[in-house]
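Researcher: I'd like a structural prediction for the single chain below. Treat it as a standalone chain; there are no partners to consider.
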Amino acid sequence: MDTELQKALKFLRNVADRNGYLLNPDLRTLERIALSMVENRRNHKRYFCPCKQHHPVNAEVDPVCPCDESKDEIRRDGFCDCHVFFDESGYEHAKMRPGLLSTVACPG
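Model: Treating it as a single chain, here is the predicted structure.
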């Protein structure tokens, strides 16, 4: 696995651990989202939120991960819009709906 991808996944794990979240259990989806973040870091030196960024990235206004809205999204839905971070109930619900996690539309 690419070293930059490993660093991005470690970053996401650290954010999850600090906030009591769980990461998306679908590794393929999680890696796809993390690769978008790796590209952002290569090009713009930051992990911009892959679901809320402009295309192309606008480094002056695009939010970095975890975005400010993620806590409210997780509290409301059980997961953030990017489907990276889950609370326990959102995680369990997603595991009971096969295929749900593979339908995430971001990164845009």
